[in-house]
Amino acid sequence: MEQHENFRIKSRISPQFDPWDAWHTRLAKGRYELTSVEFTVTNLCNLRCEHCAVGEELVEREGAAIPVELLIRRLDEIDTLQTISITGGEPIVSPKVVKETIQPLLKYAKSRGIYTQLNSNLTLPLSRYEDWIEDLDVLHISYNYRDVHDFHRIVFAKMGREVDIKAAETLFGRMKENSRALAKAGVFVSGESLLSPFTSQFIDQMHHDLVEMGCARHEVHPLYPSDFARHADLISLEQYEEAIHRLLEVRDPNTWILFGTLPFFPCSDDRQHRGLYTQLHETPNVTVRQDPDGRNRLNVNGFTGDIIVTDFGDVPSLGNIHHDRLSDIFDRWLQHPLAKKYHCYCEQAKCTGPNILVANAYYNNWDFTKRSAEGLVKIV
């Protein structure tokens, strides 16, 4: 494989360097740049999880995908590109998608020194991962279960038919075995838990399960109130805070914990919330990721070509890959009223403002651009 003319030597992904975090570019360049593109490559999935953020897009059969050559041509136009994410659906369900879309994207990224992540439920046979996984940087999985009974209830919640517990036992066991096997082989497996009224009570157990599964990182996010989960109850900020403290008390110190779309801010009126924000930044092997959506990332639908700022929100399509350059779309987005509303920036507090969903859920009446983190010790 030939090395791309824009090849970058990659640093090791670690708590000190998360290439998906919008903070690095904003600090270094003084502005946001398009460094990340996420592709939705399939609307097929073998599960129907109750928390799925794209559940209503899932299909039994899907139409023709956009040729990968066009996707790569658009990526080639982005000089600032650093990361590519691949999602679905379950990207590995279709061998055709793996061969014709995923593998070419991974090889292209490797030729440029671009970091890659693929989101998978990891329930398919291990052989489906083995002939391409070496080109992947991060294998991302969701984990929101205490046991097989939770798994059975959650992942088949929207299936539309009864699924035998035996099927759940097979898939649940396979997911754990696959994770251990791939981690042992050197794959960076990152397990994500979504905090909800259910999972927040058991986040400590889920953390230890992920450690036992060989995960190098545990990501913790709020449950997004969208799609299948749009009617789900959100936990209160007090419950969220309790869950974080419980996790920090029992965590494995050798496992990186990443808090994404965190609903606590250094400009909060609540002293405890400000203290928690500072604590997370000062705790070894714990990081707070500044939200990539709209700050350094766009999402591309691999079938319609539509370009959106987030795969979870309600911001309409900003353009289409058939006739728009992604960098042009991103520059246009930065002038959008929503971007201006939420793209506040505080270098002292290492904060780039809220995720749109978090702001709507917890801080609907706040104007973040008029708040400040005065009195906070500088976070490095």
UniProtKB/TrEMBL annotation:
GO terms (molecular function) for this protein are: 4 iron, 4 sulfur cluster binding; catalytic activity; metal ion binding
Q: What is this protein called?
A: Radical SAM/CxCxxxxC motif protein YfkAB
Record-linked NCBIfam families: rSAM_YfkAB
Q: Which PANTHER family match?
A: 7-CARBOXY-7-DEAZAGUANINE SYNTHASE (PTHR42836), PROTEIN YFKA-RELATED (PTHR42836:SF2)
The yes or no answer to whether the keyword Repeat is present is no
One Pfam entry for this protein is: Radical_SAM
Coiled coil regions in record: none
